[in-house]
Each structure stands twice: as C-alpha cells, then as structure tokens.
Amino acid sequence: MLQGTPLWFDARTKSPVAFVSHAHSDHIARHERVIATPETLALMTHRLGPLEATTPFRYGETLGHEDLHLECFSAGHVFGSAQIRVTRSDGHRLVYTGDVSLEPALTAQAAPVLSCETLIIESTFGHPKYRFPPRAQVYDEVADWARRQLARGVRPILLAYSLGKSQETIRQLAVRGLKVCAHPKIHEVAQIYEQLGMPVGARRFDGSFLDDEVGLFPPFRRGDSLAHVGPRSLAALTGWALEPWGARRSGADVAFPVSDHADFPSLVAYAQKSGAREVITVHGFAAELAAELRALGMFARAVTEQVQMVLL
User: Fold this and answer.
1) Which domain holds residue 176?
2) pLDDT tens, 258-270?
3) What CATH number is given to the structural domain containing 234?
4) Is residue 147 situated within a structural domain?
5) Cα(40)–Cα(34) distance, integer angstroms
C-alpha cells in the first residue's frame, strides 16, 4: 500500500481503495472501491459478481486521489491490463507495472516503459534462464503442430488460461487459418471481450468437435468433458514450457513457450529504461531479478507477496 493513504495495488484481501491491474484471480478481491480499466471492471464483475464501488480508469487518463496524481497506461498482459504511475506532491513518481508484457499482442494494447523514480515490477520470469522466443514464431510452431495432428486424424487440444492467453490464442490461430472450438469458460470470457469491442471468435464447445477444429481448454479443467474425445494430443501454452517439466505440469504431451508475462531480458530492459533510482521486484523470481539488477549497478530489492509494501 502507499504509506499515509488507503490506496492499495492488487490487494489480495478486501481493501478500502485498490488499483487492480487486471482481472486474473490472483490479483482481484471484493474491495470497497476498485480503480481499474473498464475492461478489468467488466471481467472482475464476471468473476466476482457486482462490485461495491468502481472508478473506471482508462488508458491515458489521470485521476486525483488525496494528494496523489494517478496515470493509467496499458500493461500489455491481457485485455484491459494496466500499469499505474503515481506522482506525489513533491514530484516523486512511482510506477507499479502489475503483470506486464512488452511483446506485441492482438488482444492487448502495447505497454510503454514508464519513467519514474521508484519502480515496482513483477518478476514472474525474473530469472536469467527465462528468455522467450518471439511470440509470432511460437504461434507459428503451435499452428504447425495442430495441423500435423489434424492431418493424422488426432484432435489437437491446447491448454491455456481462460482469461487472456486463450483469447489471444484464438486470434493468433485465426490469422493462421485455423478454427478453434473453446471450452465454455473460455468462450464466456471471449464474449465479454466482444461486448467491449475486442473481436475474438471461436465456437463454444458443446461436447463434440467439427473435423477441422482445434480444441482450447483451461489447464486442469479437462475432466470428463474430454474423456470421450479420441484420439487426441494435448499441448500446454505456458512460459514454463522452457522447463523440462513444462508439459508434465499441465498433464500435456508437449508444451510451447507462450507467455503473456515479460521474460528476463524484457524485465531488465524495462528497469533500465525507466530511469528508476529504486526498483522493487515482486512475485516469482523477485530475489533473482533484484540481484541481477544490483549487478548492473541499480538499487534493487525484492519484496515477497507476503510482505506488506510501504512505498512512499
């Protein structure tokens, strides 16, 4: 939270006022008041039900909160995801990126690098071993894999999170000429995207596939809905595909390094380009990223999710 104010960033429990960067379940809660983009508010409502009080915060807008000046920018992570820059009365600027990605996407606006004095940056993949190939290249490989399965009479099933990565995958496969049949949970989110002006497409899975369709399901939700589908081959779309256990983690046959998080080089580049005098790393490989930034001459420290942040 911001010292001396009731403003929280992505608080996991109910808070008086919280800026919510995006609508993934590990970033949302039923706050007394939510500050977020209209897209995030709609997706939060879909997941949590009606919210107590909301303040829509669009990209490029500014907002006053007590003696703080707030600015909203895209985070490039999922549809509606946002970074926030907070300027206090003495001119000190703090940026909270939330989950961020600098890779071009079809369903998320590009994320700018924001200049600041204090940077709080997510570090899910903040270890030097995480270096993702270009997103377009990986989706080319996914599409080629799916075509090979279809050609030999095997149903290709992709596993991706129901909010964000799945909708991006539908768009990416569509431009590569593939049809997608999506699990109902994925299809529901896609419909919200459509209502908010982001076209997605895909047919809702009704228990069966058409001959030329690629299946798209959330991880760990295959259950009985796929028990009668065979033969089939499962591919996980995850940044953890870079690990030898990446496919096994999702119960898949193969894994592709599709991620909507920044990889290690991108996180380092963001920290350097921001001009921050202090960098606070959170989530994932926070300690490792902070150590790497210190080695580059930056003042950086890690704060785990369990530690309440006093930032200003």
Assistant:
1) 135-256
2) 999 999 999 999 9
3) 3.40.50
4) yes
5) 10
